[in-house]
Amino acid sequence: MKDISHIVRLMWNEKRDIWLTVLLGFLAGITGIALFASSGYLISKAALLPPLYTLTVMLALLKLAGIARALSRYAERLVSHRATFTILKDVRASFYEKLEPMVPRIFNTYRSGDLLSRIVGDVENLQNFFLRVFYPPVVFLFVFLSTIAFVSFYSVPIAMMLLAGMVLTGMAIPAYFAYRQKKWDDSVRDMRSLFSSEAAEFYYGYRDLKIYGQTAEKEEKLRRLSDILTDKQAQLDNRVNQTQSINTAITVLINCGILALGAYQAAAGELNGLYLAMLVMISLNVFEFAVPMAAFPVYYEESRRASKRLYSFPEEPVVQEEKKQADITQDGFSIHVKNVHYSYGTASSGLKGVTVAFPQGSKTAVVGPSGSGKSTLLMLLMKMYEPESGEITLNEKPLSDISSESLWERCNIILQDNHFFYGTIRENLLIAVKEETEDADLLHALKEAGLENKRLDDLVLEKGDNLSGGEKQKLAIARILLKKAGLWLLDEPTASMDLLSEQSIHNTLFKHARHQTLILVSHRLTGLEMMDQIIVMDQGLILEKGPYEELMRRKGYFYGLKQIEQEVLV
Which keywords does this Swiss-Prot/TrEMBL entry list (predicted)? Predict the structure, then answer.
């Protein structure tokens, strides 16, 4: 029950529709049994040649029961599916609320295809929880007990036989297969997740696979996973069919037993023969409610495992946005990082006791070789990651006490990989501004970013596939020039540009951030003379920090990097 407790709690948010579905399902079941019972009674009564008005009244009641059954069944389907879709919406929303604070660090542990499989496949599997796990047993119990109570007025032995059939088909057999289902490690969801992950990688890496001639091997792996997934799904379906077959066989035996017992009682004078056909028709119809119980074990286990996968993320140091967090109200920004540790799960990555200050209005460059921890430090400042230990303060206030949205609203951020949406240049620029902006302002931002040759109505393909690497970075810079926030956090903003474009962009950025705090992560060492301080990192540690002239005078690590760069450029 612990694994499905989240789903039960979300389901009870729709308790009005749930109880209405149960009521309508019960009415549809009872009117269906009444329809069959009155049909059997009418057949027997007609054989005795009763007055015509008796048959007329009985036929009218029969039609009324048929109409009532159809209407209640339609209403039950309408309400139950409305409740199911609402529950699925709540499940998706709750999963996203749990997932969203963990981004992007969750990608260190889970593959994107796996997460997609959970939010699509596992959520879709949970639609069976209400329709095939919770609802059928409740209606089955109410309808069967009501029917047994009615039949007991005519024949207690037949009522007891119905009770035995109810226990066997609705409880004993499903319980047995539920016990066996737990032991079967079908892993359909895990295999579906693996297949989704591999398919996503094949899609995103198709070009590289094609270049290196590895598409055939990857395609074969996907086919093999697809065959395994299909086989496991077939095994799952076969278990449902096996349970239904056993249930159907027991139902037939019980119906035959009721017919034989009723005939014996009628012959012995213990039962009015007029009611024999009615009782047999009742038994034929009431066991239809045992059919969904045959699939109960599979759907219950499927729902349990899907729920477990959806809510099985380990507890991580996540900023809880539910607690009241402060907004940023001032324009100046000073940041202090005090003995901060962060790792990606390996000893050679992340940060190791980093302590550094970014004074208000200062310009800071963070440099070092690839994997030194530069981008990790920037992600921590953006609250994309949370420190494992240590503290980061913004204007002497803990960063953890500041709402993420308020921080991002006050930041001009450029990441190494910036996303561009399918649409026009204009549409991709306007996501950076909240108020209406004139085309002249957009064109001015493009010009300052070095994209004066672009028009606002030029098409941008998905992920900016029709733009070069440098054009993507210039478009990202045009965005932040339009946003006009007070804290600049830039991760390799000119890595794909030539030296002349890079120098021009640096001048533009410094002009706009003249009195504001700017932090630039770069692997290039050119153009850093204008920085107030340079932080040199390697393997998660700060090796040196200070102004450009001082670092060059020390002839330490930074000096060595600079010499190597000059030799390469020459």
Answer: ATP-binding, Membrane, Nucleotide-binding, Transmembrane, Transmembrane helix
User: Does any domain span residue 22?
Assistant: yes
Query: What is the C-alpha to C-alpha distance for residues 358 and 375, in angstroms, rounded to an integer?
Result: 16
Model pLDDT for residues 510-530, shown as the tens digit of each residue: 899 888 999 999 888 888 888
**What are 553's two structure tokens?**
């005078």
Report the SS3 class of residue 264. helix
Q: 121 with 43, same domain?
A: yes
pTM of the prediction?
0.63
- Alpha carbon distance 71, 54 (integer Å): 26
d(CA 244, CA 561): 73
Q: Which residues contact 553 (CB under 8 A, 6 or more apart)?
A: none
Give residue 317's pLDDT band: very low, low, confident or very high (50, 70, 90): very low
Short-list 172, 10, 188, 190, CA closest to 85? 10
Contacts of residue 300, Cβ cutoff 8 Å, sequence gap at least 6: 133, 178, 181
237 domain residue, yes or no: no
Q: Is residue 252 part of a domain?
A: yes
Q: What is the mean pLDDT of residues 343-367?
A: 84
Structural domain total, the chain: 2
Q: In angstroms, what CA-CA distances link 211 with 214, 216, 221, 469?
A: 8, 12, 18, 20
Same domain, residue pair 433 and 486? yes
Query: Residues 6 or more apart from 569 whose CB is under 8 A from it?
Result: none
Whether residue 381 sits in one domain with residue 274: no
> Do 414 and 497 sit in the same domain of this protein?
yes
Domain that holds residue 557: 335-569
Instruction: Give the model confidence (pLDDT) of 37-79 as tens digits.
Output: 888 888 888 877 777 777 787 788 888 888 888 999 899 989 9
CATH of the domain at 127: 1.20.1560.10
